[in-house]
Amino acid sequence: MLTLIPIPPSASNTSGTFTGYDLSVIDPQTGLYYLSDRSNSGIDVFSIQTYAFVGRIGQDLFAGTANGDNDIAGPNGIAIRNLPGGGKLLLAGNTGTGSSGNLLAFNLQSDGLTVVGAPRTLSSAVAGTTPVPSNRVDGVDYAPNANTILAANNSSDPGYLTLFDNASGAIIKTLLLDGSGGTPNVAGNGVEAVLFNTVTQTFFVAVPNLDSDASGNGLGYGGVIEIDPATGTLLRTFDFQALGLGGPCNPTGLVQGAGATMMASSGTTGGYTVFLDPLDFGGRGAITASPAASGGDQDTYDSASNTYFEAARFDPAGPSLGIFNGDGSFSQKLPITNNDHSVAVDPTSGKVFVAYGASTDTAAITNGAKGGIAVFAPPDVHPPFFTGEVPLAYGAYYLAFPQNGNVFGYYSYLDTPRYIYHFDLGYEYVAEANDGLSGVYLYDFKSNGFFYTSPTFPFPYLFDFSLNAVLYYYPDPNNPGHYTSNPRTFYDFHTKQIITK
After folding, report:
1. Which long-range contacts (CB under 8 A, 24 or more apart) does 7-13 make?
2. Maximum C-alpha span of the chain
3. Partner of 263 at 20 to 30 A CA spacing, among 16, 65, 199, 470?
4. Alpha-carbon gap, residue 175 to 34, rounded angstroms
5. pLDDT at 331
6. In the structure, what pLDDT confidence band is assigned to residue 394 with cuts at 50, 70 and 90?
7. Where are the alpha helices (DSSP H) in 408-493?
8. Three-class SS state of 15
9. What class does CATH assign to 3-376?
């Protein structure tokens, strides 16, 4: 952990502690981190570069901790999206008067902080249709293609979804998840994360139990449902058990990774984290799964490193930050503190932000007795390209690819595994190609251009995007295990000439 950011208490928070909260999100365009803070009844906003507290949106408009009653607390789920016409839309689930579920919508300027006009309160309660009490709205997200908002009431019986027209605030559709019309029969077992998938251009919702018995007990391993953003129609149900899952997931968190693929974290201790491709098998979907981390709530994804993170507060090994590679394979776990269930990642620095509620665990952390936001360094996640590397002295590594024995050479990592100093190539930024071949894109700082290579392309062959040509990087005949460096010499297969770069 790099640091613990303190959270300034509001005037009404007389204890000064940060105990009640829910989820968080980072807007990479503004470099701002937003946290659903129930202890201070608002959305806390911090700079992810300086860690400075820059404001609290919606102060005292939310239900707060509701004396510890999670069913009627707020703020809850959170989302921020760019609006098609400019500016941003910040959404947060809440509970209104009389335990009536609602959400607050804030139109923001492009700075992500300045609120434009009055906040809007959108109630999901419909007399004679929705259950009483409707309790809190939890998961929320926005569909820019339809200008609609989808909200999940997860503490009512049954749970239900509401599709709002963002322009007018009117309800387009209420979808009771009571087993009628092909909907899941969730009873009182919850409806969790809501996600707008930018590839399918539809909403997806994590459903812990797709069926329930006569007593309301949840059945099965859970799954994900897909919702039309224009009409609220249920499009598809992805039943994890029917897709071959060997044990429970009962998903709570949901995040989009590369392409349309999504990770669903297991809300069950000892359950499976599931990776769903909704487009595979002609739209029937396909899953891979891992039991390596479980008991999670919120998930996040770092596109730069192709890495997933899960706030696995109920993991059998203790509260953990579960880290998975982009292909669904397990990477590692880092210890966090009691009940930590919020996680967000900065795609620029790779730093991971986890809200730490005040507890006996955080009391042991410097300045942590009152809680705060823990900042983790980018995890030491090596792309598969580096499989087989051998650590040497003084932080150096040597790599010869196990597939063919081709030598990549000697290098060292800088502040993050995304940056390396190759002893012959020089400084390189490494980004996974996600091509199934362990390929990588190398941003070459010496030539200010990108290379592509892989263990089976194979290196020392490189594709140079600036030259639109395949190059062969010449080894140094006088220094085994090294390549030419001063100057770097290549054979250009397009011009059939030897060049230097």
Report:
1. 7/35, 7/37, 7/39, 7/40, 7/44, 7/53, 7/370, 7/371, 7/372, 7/373, 8/53, 9/39, 9/40, 10/40, 10/41, 10/42, 10/56, 10/59, 10/60, 12/40, 12/41, 12/60, 13/39, 13/40
2. 84
3. 65
4. 29
5. 82
6. confident
7. none
8. coil
9. mainly beta
